[in-house]
Write a structure and sequence with these properties.
The complex is a heterodimer of chains A (146) and B (135).
Chain A lengths: L2 H20 L6 H7 L4 H12 L3 H18 L4 H7 L5 H12 L3 H6 L3 H4 L3 H7 L8 H11 L1
Helix pairs in contact in A: 1-2, 2-3, 4-5
Chain B lengths: L6 E5 L3 H10 L3 E8 L2 E7 L7 E5 L7 H13 L5 E5 L2 H10 L3 E8 L5 E6 L5 E6 L4
Parallel strand pairs in B: 1-4, 5-8
Antiparallel strand pairs in B: 2-3, 3-4, 6-7, 7-8
Classes of the chains: A mainly alpha (146), B alpha/beta (135).
Chain lengths: 146, 135
């Protein structure tokens, strides 16, 4: 890798660290891009190439992962929503359901024994929701299975 | 039978830059071995005699392709973290912040245990530092 490529990757890493640290604040892509010393459009493309998802998706996944932790600890859905920097309960709930596969209320209600036994710094990575690389394949499968 | 950790390896982009960072943690150079254009530098501390932490570059002893792959993961911040123990985590935090190390997390009490903080080393490795339990 050229020194320039390495430098760019380090800038992207610093922007990702900024998202991980300041997820609860109103963060926008121009602010993240500023940390990476790139224009927003160039930053979004480079971030996706390095980390496999857009900066905004990364931020939302981080917020939902933190909300999952708060819900496991007994916070209400509204408390969790506000604490992770989401301002609309409706869009928080729909984003949560899309990423986690169940509503925040349902997630809060069930048992989470295995995660409770994990140190927080591990749980943060192990419980981070994984987005499907391509939803098209899954959507198509019922037709092919039949 | 007894067993103990004797050496562990940390991949860094620039060995000398990393020595400056890790010396703030109280680790001193114990050995510096060069082979070709690469070096393997062993750090250690009186706090844990017998444990050597070996710094080397991604391409040291590897093919270009594998070195490139490792260097990319390192710089993206994707390599596994190291966790250290300090008898004064707040003082360690201030010492690292004083050299402008990249802060990942200020010292805070963790629900599961100790007070801890976290930094990136100059290459992108996560360095987490936990408060040692009172003796």
């Amino acid at each position: 890798m050229t020194p320039q490529e390495l430098e760019n990757l380090a800038h992207l890493r610093r922007a990702r660290d900024l998202i991980d640290r300041r997820y609860a604040e109103p963060l926008d892509v121009p602010t993240m891009a500023g940390r990476a010393l790139m224009s927003p459009a160039h930053f979004s493309r480079q971030f996706r190439a390095a980390y496999g998802e857009s900066p905004y998706n990364y931020l939302m996944t981080r917020r939902i992962e933190r909300a999952m932790s708060l819900l496991r600890a007994g916070a209400s859905v509204t408390e969790a929503c506000m604490a992770v920097g989401c301002t609309s309960l409706g869009s928080f709930s729909s984003r949560f359901s899309e990423i986690v596969g169940e509503t925040p209320t349902a997630y809060r209600r069930r048992e989470h024994d295995a995660v409770a036994a994990m140190p927080a710094c591990l749980a943060r990575h192990r419980t981070r929701p994984v987005r499907e690389a391509s939803s098209r394949i899954r959507e198509a499968s019922p037709a092919t299975a039949a | 039978m007894t067993i103990a950790l004797q050496y562990c390896n940390i991949t860094v982009n620039d060995v000398d830059e990393s020595i400056a960072f890790y010396s703030v943690l109280g680790l001193q150079v114990q050995n510096d071995v060069a082979s070709g254009e690469y070096r393997w530098v062993t750090l250690g501390s009186d706090a844990q005699p017998g444990l050597g932490i070996v710094l080397s570059a991604p391409h040291a002893g590897r093919s270009k392709a594998n070195g490139d792959a490792l260097q990319e993961l390192l710089t993206k911040g994707e390599l596994p973290m190291m966790v250290y123990r300090s008898d004064d985590v707040d003082a360690t935090f201030e010492a690292l912040r004083a050299i402008d190390a990249e802060v990942l997390q200020e010292p805070m009490e963790q629900g599961w245990g100790p007070r801890d903080c976290a930094f990136r080393d100059p290459s992108g490795n996560v360095v987490r530092i936990a408060q040692a339990p009172a003796a």
